Amino acid sequence: MTRRRRGASPSLITFPGLVVHRHGRAGGVTLANQSHGTLLEASDDVLEILSFFREPATVASFFESFDVDPAILDELQRQAVLVDPAKLGVLRGGLLQGAGAPFGAKTYLRDLDTAPRGRDSTFAIVGAPFELGVTCEGGARGGPREIRTAMPIGTDPEGRFPATLLDVNARRRVSTEGVRVLDLGDLQALPQEGLDAVGARLRHVVDAVLDAAMVPIVLGGDHALTHFALESVFAKHGPIGILHFDAHLDLNGTAPWLNHANVFFHALARPEVKALRQVGVRAYEVLTGWERVIPDRRLSWVTAREVGSGLSPAQVLRGLPRNLPYYLTFDVDVLDPQVAPETGAPVAGGLRVEQLLPIVDAAARALRIVGADFMEVATAPTKRNAAAMATGRILTKLLLARCRRTTLRPSKLGTPRSPG
Predict the structure, then answer these.
(1) What is the pTM of this model?
(2) Which residue, of 42, 68, 89, is where some domain finishes?
Protein backbone atom coordinates (compact mmCIF):
# COMPACT_ATOMS: atom_id res chain seq x y z
CA MET A 1 0.00 0.00 0.00
CA THR A 2 1.18 3.49 -0.80
CA ARG A 3 0.86 5.94 2.07
CA ARG A 4 -0.30 9.47 1.30
CA ARG A 5 -1.83 12.38 3.20
CA ARG A 6 -4.16 11.96 6.19
CA GLY A 7 -7.44 13.78 6.73
CA ALA A 8 -9.11 14.95 9.95
CA SER A 9 -12.82 14.59 10.82
CA PRO A 10 -13.84 11.24 12.39
CA SER A 11 -15.79 8.62 10.50
CA LEU A 12 -14.39 5.17 11.37
CA ILE A 13 -12.27 3.69 14.15
CA THR A 14 -10.76 0.26 14.73
CA PHE A 15 -13.00 -1.56 17.20
CA PRO A 16 -11.47 -1.33 20.70
CA GLY A 17 -10.54 -4.76 21.98
CA LEU A 18 -10.24 -6.30 18.53
CA VAL A 19 -8.15 -9.47 18.78
CA VAL A 20 -5.46 -9.77 16.08
CA HIS A 21 -3.70 -13.12 15.66
CA ARG A 22 -0.68 -13.17 13.34
CA HIS A 23 0.04 -16.39 11.46
CA GLY A 24 3.82 -15.99 11.66
CA ARG A 25 5.86 -17.21 8.70
CA ALA A 26 2.75 -18.43 6.91
CA GLY A 27 1.60 -14.82 6.61
CA GLY A 28 -1.86 -13.37 7.12
CA VAL A 29 -3.85 -12.50 10.23
CA THR A 30 -7.09 -13.49 11.92
CA LEU A 31 -9.26 -10.62 13.19
CA ALA A 32 -11.76 -11.49 15.92
CA ASN A 33 -14.40 -9.18 17.34
CA GLN A 34 -15.44 -11.38 20.22
CA SER A 35 -18.36 -9.26 21.45
CA HIS A 36 -19.94 -9.40 17.98
CA GLY A 37 -18.95 -12.97 17.18
CA THR A 38 -17.10 -12.14 13.96
CA LEU A 39 -13.97 -13.83 12.68
CA LEU A 40 -12.14 -12.65 9.57
CA GLU A 41 -9.07 -14.00 7.79
CA ALA A 42 -7.03 -11.29 6.03
CA SER A 43 -3.63 -10.50 4.60
CA ASP A 44 -0.93 -8.70 6.58
CA ASP A 45 -1.75 -5.51 4.63
CA VAL A 46 -4.87 -5.08 6.73
CA LEU A 47 -2.69 -4.09 9.68
CA GLU A 48 -1.90 -0.80 7.97
CA ILE A 49 -5.63 -0.10 7.72
CA LEU A 50 -6.14 -0.88 11.40
CA SER A 51 -3.22 1.38 12.28
CA PHE A 52 -4.64 4.22 10.20
CA PHE A 53 -7.97 3.99 12.01
CA ARG A 54 -6.47 3.55 15.49
CA GLU A 55 -7.85 7.04 16.09
CA PRO A 56 -11.08 8.27 14.42
CA ALA A 57 -10.51 9.24 10.77
CA THR A 58 -12.66 9.85 7.73
CA VAL A 59 -13.09 7.39 4.91
CA ALA A 60 -12.21 10.21 2.50
CA SER A 61 -8.88 10.80 4.21
CA PHE A 62 -8.16 7.08 4.07
CA PHE A 63 -8.58 6.96 0.30
CA GLU A 64 -6.35 10.01 0.00
CA SER A 65 -3.69 8.01 1.82
CA PHE A 66 -4.14 4.49 0.41
CA ASP A 67 -4.95 2.89 -2.92
CA VAL A 68 -7.30 0.12 -1.73
CA ASP A 69 -10.37 -1.58 -3.16
CA PRO A 70 -13.37 0.06 -1.36
CA ALA A 71 -14.90 -3.39 -0.94
CA ILE A 72 -12.18 -4.20 1.61
CA LEU A 73 -13.26 -1.31 3.80
CA ASP A 74 -16.89 -2.38 3.40
CA GLU A 75 -16.06 -5.90 4.56
CA LEU A 76 -14.14 -4.62 7.58
CA GLN A 77 -17.19 -2.60 8.58
CA ARG A 78 -19.52 -5.53 7.96
CA GLN A 79 -17.42 -7.68 10.28
CA ALA A 80 -17.35 -4.94 12.97
CA VAL A 81 -13.58 -4.53 12.62
CA LEU A 82 -14.06 -0.86 11.75
CA VAL A 83 -17.01 0.98 13.30
CA ASP A 84 -18.52 4.43 13.53
CA PRO A 85 -16.89 6.07 16.59
CA ALA A 86 -20.17 7.85 17.39
CA LYS A 87 -21.78 4.43 17.92
CA LEU A 88 -19.10 2.89 20.11
CA GLY A 89 -21.31 3.20 23.17
CA VAL A 90 -23.95 1.13 21.41
CA LEU A 91 -21.60 -1.37 19.79
CA ARG A 92 -18.97 -1.98 22.45
CA GLY A 93 -20.91 -4.64 24.37
CA GLY A 94 -22.16 -6.49 21.31
CA LEU A 95 -25.64 -6.38 19.82
CA LEU A 96 -27.34 -9.71 19.23
CA GLN A 97 -27.15 -13.33 20.23
CA GLY A 98 -28.78 -16.13 18.30
CA ALA A 99 -32.23 -17.31 19.38
CA GLY A 100 -32.31 -20.80 20.84
CA ALA A 101 -35.10 -21.75 18.45
CA PRO A 102 -35.16 -19.16 15.66
CA PHE A 103 -38.27 -18.49 13.64
CA GLY A 104 -37.19 -17.99 10.05
CA ALA A 105 -33.71 -18.16 8.59
CA LYS A 106 -31.04 -17.62 11.23
CA THR A 107 -29.26 -14.48 10.02
CA TYR A 108 -26.45 -12.30 11.33
CA LEU A 109 -26.92 -8.55 11.30
CA ARG A 110 -23.69 -8.16 9.32
CA ASP A 111 -25.17 -10.34 6.56
CA LEU A 112 -28.45 -8.46 6.07
CA ASP A 113 -27.37 -6.97 2.76
CA THR A 114 -26.56 -10.39 1.30
CA ALA A 115 -29.31 -12.41 3.03
CA PRO A 116 -31.88 -14.20 0.84
CA ARG A 117 -34.98 -12.12 0.26
CA GLY A 118 -38.57 -12.67 -0.60
CA ARG A 119 -39.78 -11.38 -3.94
CA ASP A 120 -42.59 -9.41 -2.29
CA SER A 121 -41.87 -9.13 1.44
CA THR A 122 -38.91 -9.83 3.71
CA PHE A 123 -39.46 -9.66 7.45
CA ALA A 124 -36.65 -9.55 10.02
CA ILE A 125 -37.40 -10.79 13.55
CA VAL A 126 -35.60 -9.01 16.41
CA GLY A 127 -36.03 -10.22 20.00
CA ALA A 128 -35.96 -7.64 22.81
CA PRO A 129 -36.12 -9.70 26.03
CA PHE A 130 -36.31 -6.80 28.50
CA GLU A 131 -38.79 -5.26 30.94
CA LEU A 132 -36.94 -2.15 32.01
CA GLY A 133 -39.89 0.17 31.40
CA VAL A 134 -42.56 -1.58 33.46
CA THR A 135 -44.30 -0.29 36.56
CA CYS A 136 -44.89 -3.84 37.76
CA GLU A 137 -43.12 -7.17 37.31
CA GLY A 138 -44.78 -8.84 34.35
CA GLY A 139 -42.33 -11.48 33.09
CA ALA A 140 -42.25 -10.00 29.58
CA ARG A 141 -38.51 -10.59 29.26
CA GLY A 142 -39.39 -14.16 28.28
CA GLY A 143 -41.70 -13.03 25.48
CA PRO A 144 -39.41 -13.49 22.46
CA ARG A 145 -38.65 -17.09 23.35
CA GLU A 146 -42.29 -17.87 24.15
CA ILE A 147 -43.62 -16.38 20.91
CA ARG A 148 -41.06 -18.10 18.70
CA THR A 149 -41.82 -21.45 20.32
CA ALA A 150 -45.57 -21.00 19.87
CA MET A 151 -45.64 -20.02 16.18
CA PRO A 152 -48.35 -22.19 14.58
CA ILE A 153 -46.35 -23.02 11.45
CA GLY A 154 -42.62 -22.96 10.86
CA THR A 155 -40.36 -22.06 7.98
CA ASP A 156 -37.55 -23.92 6.28
CA PRO A 157 -33.90 -22.96 7.02
CA GLU A 158 -34.11 -20.33 4.27
CA GLY A 159 -37.03 -18.60 5.98
CA ARG A 160 -39.70 -19.79 3.56
CA PHE A 161 -43.13 -21.04 4.57
CA PRO A 162 -44.52 -24.17 2.90
CA ALA A 163 -45.42 -23.11 -0.65
CA THR A 164 -49.17 -23.55 -0.18
CA LEU A 165 -51.15 -23.40 3.04
CA LEU A 166 -54.77 -24.18 3.75
CA ASP A 167 -56.19 -21.48 6.01
CA VAL A 168 -58.98 -23.62 7.37
CA ASN A 169 -60.52 -20.90 9.54
CA ALA A 170 -60.80 -18.50 6.58
CA ARG A 171 -61.67 -21.31 4.14
CA ARG A 172 -59.03 -20.40 1.59
CA ARG A 173 -55.80 -21.56 0.03
CA VAL A 174 -52.75 -19.31 0.56
CA SER A 175 -49.72 -19.21 -1.74
CA THR A 176 -46.73 -18.08 0.35
CA GLU A 177 -44.35 -17.56 -2.56
CA GLY A 178 -42.55 -14.23 -2.28
CA VAL A 179 -42.45 -14.08 1.55
CA ARG A 180 -39.22 -14.60 3.49
CA VAL A 181 -38.65 -14.41 7.25
CA LEU A 182 -35.21 -13.86 8.80
CA ASP A 183 -34.39 -14.16 12.50
CA LEU A 184 -31.61 -11.90 13.78
CA GLY A 185 -31.79 -13.28 17.33
CA ASP A 186 -32.16 -11.34 20.57
CA LEU A 187 -30.51 -8.19 21.85
CA GLN A 188 -27.84 -9.16 24.33
CA ALA A 189 -28.53 -8.38 27.99
CA LEU A 190 -25.59 -6.48 29.48
CA PRO A 191 -25.09 -6.07 33.25
CA GLN A 192 -26.71 -3.07 34.91
CA GLU A 193 -27.74 -1.34 31.71
CA GLY A 194 -30.86 0.82 31.63
CA LEU A 195 -33.69 1.32 29.20
CA ASP A 196 -31.93 4.04 27.21
CA ALA A 197 -28.90 1.79 26.57
CA VAL A 198 -31.08 -1.12 25.46
CA GLY A 199 -33.13 1.25 23.35
CA ALA A 200 -30.07 2.64 21.59
CA ARG A 201 -29.01 -0.88 20.61
CA LEU A 202 -32.53 -1.77 19.49
CA ARG A 203 -32.64 1.34 17.36
CA HIS A 204 -29.28 0.47 15.78
CA VAL A 205 -30.62 -2.96 14.77
CA VAL A 206 -33.97 -1.65 13.50
CA ASP A 207 -32.10 1.05 11.53
CA ALA A 208 -30.10 -1.69 9.81
CA VAL A 209 -33.24 -3.68 8.98
CA LEU A 210 -34.96 -0.63 7.49
CA ASP A 211 -31.82 0.33 5.55
CA ALA A 212 -31.88 -3.18 4.05
CA ALA A 213 -35.46 -2.50 2.82
CA MET A 214 -36.93 -5.15 5.14
CA VAL A 215 -39.81 -4.98 7.62
CA PRO A 216 -38.65 -5.20 11.26
CA ILE A 217 -40.76 -7.33 13.62
CA VAL A 218 -39.75 -6.70 17.25
CA LEU A 219 -40.72 -9.34 19.82
CA GLY A 220 -40.83 -7.94 23.36
CA GLY A 221 -40.35 -7.32 26.05
CA ASP A 222 -42.30 -4.46 27.55
CA HIS A 223 -44.12 -1.82 25.56
CA ALA A 224 -41.66 0.98 26.38
CA LEU A 225 -39.33 -0.57 23.79
CA THR A 226 -41.76 0.47 21.06
CA HIS A 227 -40.48 4.04 21.55
CA PHE A 228 -37.07 3.17 20.11
CA ALA A 229 -38.39 1.20 17.15
CA LEU A 230 -40.61 4.17 16.34
CA GLU A 231 -37.59 6.48 16.44
CA SER A 232 -36.02 4.37 13.69
CA VAL A 233 -39.21 4.42 11.63
CA PHE A 234 -39.50 8.21 11.98
CA ALA A 235 -35.92 8.62 10.76
CA LYS A 236 -36.47 6.34 7.77
CA HIS A 237 -40.02 7.18 6.70
CA GLY A 238 -40.87 10.58 8.18
CA PRO A 239 -44.65 11.02 8.66
CA ILE A 240 -46.36 7.77 9.70
CA GLY A 241 -49.53 6.37 11.20
CA ILE A 242 -49.64 4.01 14.17
CA LEU A 243 -52.12 1.16 14.61
CA HIS A 244 -52.09 0.19 18.29
CA PHE A 245 -53.79 -2.91 19.76
CA ASP A 246 -54.00 -2.77 23.56
CA ALA A 247 -56.27 -2.88 26.60
CA HIS A 248 -54.67 0.39 27.75
CA LEU A 249 -54.19 3.74 26.06
CA ASP A 250 -50.56 4.07 27.25
CA LEU A 251 -50.96 7.85 27.23
CA ASN A 252 -50.24 8.62 30.89
CA GLY A 253 -48.22 11.83 30.92
CA THR A 254 -47.66 12.11 34.68
CA ALA A 255 -44.41 10.12 34.94
CA PRO A 256 -41.30 12.06 33.86
CA TRP A 257 -39.59 8.93 32.54
CA LEU A 258 -40.43 6.71 29.59
CA ASN A 259 -42.33 3.58 30.59
CA HIS A 260 -44.80 1.06 29.21
CA ALA A 261 -47.78 3.18 30.31
CA ASN A 262 -46.81 6.38 28.49
CA VAL A 263 -45.07 5.30 25.29
CA PHE A 264 -47.78 6.85 23.09
CA PHE A 265 -47.81 10.06 25.11
CA HIS A 266 -44.21 10.39 23.93
CA ALA A 267 -45.15 9.30 20.39
CA LEU A 268 -47.77 12.07 20.10
CA ALA A 269 -45.09 14.60 21.02
CA ARG A 270 -43.52 13.83 17.65
CA PRO A 271 -44.81 15.71 14.59
CA GLU A 272 -44.10 12.65 12.44
CA VAL A 273 -47.14 10.89 13.95
CA LYS A 274 -50.09 11.85 11.76
CA ALA A 275 -52.60 9.27 13.04
CA LEU A 276 -52.81 7.02 16.10
CA ARG A 277 -55.68 4.51 16.07
CA GLN A 278 -56.01 2.47 19.29
CA VAL A 279 -58.04 -0.74 19.05
CA GLY A 280 -59.44 -2.91 21.84
CA VAL A 281 -58.91 -0.36 24.61
CA ARG A 282 -61.10 -0.71 27.69
CA ALA A 283 -59.22 -0.01 30.97
CA TYR A 284 -60.15 2.71 33.46
CA GLU A 285 -57.68 5.57 33.23
CA VAL A 286 -56.81 8.36 35.69
CA LEU A 287 -57.17 11.64 33.81
CA THR A 288 -54.36 13.54 35.54
CA GLY A 289 -51.77 14.68 33.02
CA TRP A 290 -53.97 14.04 29.96
CA GLU A 291 -54.71 17.66 29.15
CA ARG A 292 -52.51 17.62 26.05
CA VAL A 293 -53.43 14.33 24.44
CA ILE A 294 -57.22 14.09 24.81
CA PRO A 295 -58.03 16.90 22.32
CA ASP A 296 -55.37 15.72 19.84
CA ARG A 297 -57.15 15.16 16.53
CA ARG A 298 -54.59 12.57 15.46
CA LEU A 299 -55.80 10.26 18.23
CA SER A 300 -58.81 7.93 17.88
CA TRP A 301 -60.08 4.86 19.74
CA VAL A 302 -62.07 1.77 18.84
CA THR A 303 -62.97 0.16 22.14
CA ALA A 304 -63.23 -3.53 22.93
CA ARG A 305 -66.99 -3.07 23.46
CA GLU A 306 -67.34 -1.53 20.00
CA VAL A 307 -65.37 -4.34 18.33
CA GLY A 308 -67.44 -6.87 20.27
CA SER A 309 -70.67 -5.23 19.10
CA GLY A 310 -69.88 -6.36 15.55
CA LEU A 311 -67.84 -3.63 13.87
CA SER A 312 -66.36 -4.89 10.60
CA PRO A 313 -62.59 -4.59 9.97
CA ALA A 314 -63.34 -1.82 7.47
CA GLN A 315 -65.22 0.09 10.17
CA VAL A 316 -62.36 -0.37 12.64
CA LEU A 317 -59.94 1.14 10.11
CA ARG A 318 -62.30 3.81 8.78
CA GLY A 319 -60.83 7.29 8.56
CA LEU A 320 -57.18 6.26 8.62
CA PRO A 321 -55.29 8.06 5.84
CA ARG A 322 -54.10 5.61 3.21
CA ASN A 323 -51.19 7.76 1.99
CA LEU A 324 -49.04 7.06 5.08
CA PRO A 325 -46.78 4.16 6.02
CA TYR A 326 -47.93 2.49 9.26
CA TYR A 327 -46.34 0.92 12.30
CA LEU A 328 -48.40 -1.84 13.94
CA THR A 329 -47.89 -2.36 17.66
CA PHE A 330 -49.59 -5.19 19.55
CA ASP A 331 -49.85 -5.57 23.32
CA VAL A 332 -51.16 -9.05 24.10
CA ASP A 333 -53.40 -7.72 26.87
CA VAL A 334 -55.75 -6.50 24.12
CA LEU A 335 -56.97 -10.10 24.32
CA ASP A 336 -59.26 -11.20 27.11
CA PRO A 337 -57.29 -12.72 30.04
CA GLN A 338 -59.29 -15.93 29.64
CA VAL A 339 -57.69 -16.18 26.19
CA ALA A 340 -54.23 -14.82 27.07
CA PRO A 341 -53.58 -14.86 30.82
CA GLU A 342 -49.76 -14.67 30.53
CA THR A 343 -49.25 -10.91 30.65
CA GLY A 344 -48.45 -8.31 33.28
CA ALA A 345 -51.56 -6.10 33.25
CA PRO A 346 -54.61 -8.14 32.21
CA VAL A 347 -57.99 -6.40 31.91
CA ALA A 348 -61.29 -8.32 31.81
CA GLY A 349 -63.58 -7.85 28.84
CA GLY A 350 -61.01 -8.15 26.08
CA LEU A 351 -61.11 -9.43 22.53
CA ARG A 352 -60.92 -12.95 21.17
CA VAL A 353 -58.38 -14.13 18.63
CA GLU A 354 -61.04 -14.65 15.97
CA GLN A 355 -62.09 -10.99 16.36
CA LEU A 356 -58.53 -9.73 15.91
CA LEU A 357 -57.41 -11.92 13.02
CA PRO A 358 -59.62 -10.28 10.34
CA ILE A 359 -58.73 -6.79 11.62
CA VAL A 360 -54.99 -7.46 11.39
CA ASP A 361 -55.48 -9.11 8.00
CA ALA A 362 -57.46 -6.14 6.67
CA ALA A 363 -54.95 -3.65 8.10
CA ALA A 364 -51.99 -5.41 6.50
CA ARG A 365 -53.75 -5.48 3.14
CA ALA A 366 -55.13 -1.94 3.19
CA LEU A 367 -52.19 -0.16 4.85
CA ARG A 368 -48.47 -0.18 4.09
CA ILE A 369 -47.02 -1.73 7.25
CA VAL A 370 -43.32 -0.80 7.50
CA GLY A 371 -42.67 -2.19 10.97
CA ALA A 372 -44.40 -3.98 13.82
CA ASP A 373 -43.93 -5.24 17.34
CA PHE A 374 -45.60 -7.83 19.58
CA MET A 375 -45.22 -7.01 23.26
CA GLU A 376 -45.95 -7.98 26.86
CA VAL A 377 -46.19 -11.78 26.47
CA ALA A 378 -44.98 -13.20 29.78
CA THR A 379 -43.43 -16.53 30.62
CA ALA A 380 -46.04 -19.20 31.35
CA PRO A 381 -46.05 -21.23 34.57
CA THR A 382 -46.89 -24.30 32.47
CA LYS A 383 -45.54 -25.72 29.21
CA ARG A 384 -48.39 -24.21 27.20
CA ASN A 385 -48.42 -20.43 26.89
CA ALA A 386 -51.86 -19.34 25.69
CA ALA A 387 -50.82 -15.70 25.20
CA ALA A 388 -47.85 -16.75 23.08
CA MET A 389 -49.98 -19.13 21.00
CA ALA A 390 -52.51 -16.37 20.33
CA THR A 391 -49.75 -13.91 19.47
CA GLY A 392 -48.16 -16.44 17.14
CA ARG A 393 -51.42 -16.79 15.19
CA ILE A 394 -51.83 -13.03 14.88
CA LEU A 395 -48.19 -12.54 13.85
CA THR A 396 -48.58 -15.26 11.21
CA LYS A 397 -51.67 -13.49 9.88
CA LEU A 398 -49.60 -10.30 9.49
CA LEU A 399 -46.73 -12.11 7.74
CA LEU A 400 -49.02 -13.81 5.23
CA ALA A 401 -51.66 -11.09 4.76
CA ARG A 402 -50.45 -9.95 1.34
CA CYS A 403 -50.02 -13.44 -0.06
CA ARG A 404 -52.13 -14.55 -2.99
CA ARG A 405 -55.12 -16.50 -1.72
CA THR A 406 -58.03 -18.36 -3.24
CA THR A 407 -61.40 -18.88 -1.58
CA LEU A 408 -62.33 -22.55 -1.75
CA ARG A 409 -65.59 -23.69 -3.27
CA PRO A 410 -68.15 -25.02 -0.77
CA SER A 411 -67.71 -28.57 -2.06
CA LYS A 412 -64.06 -28.37 -1.11
CA LEU A 413 -64.57 -27.03 2.42
CA GLY A 414 -66.04 -29.99 4.18
CA THR A 415 -69.27 -28.01 4.70
CA PRO A 416 -71.73 -30.04 6.79
CA ARG A 417 -74.71 -31.27 4.80
CA SER A 418 -78.29 -31.17 5.97
CA PRO A 419 -79.48 -34.55 7.29
CA GLY A 420 -81.52 -36.68 4.91
Answers:
(1) 0.90
(2) 89
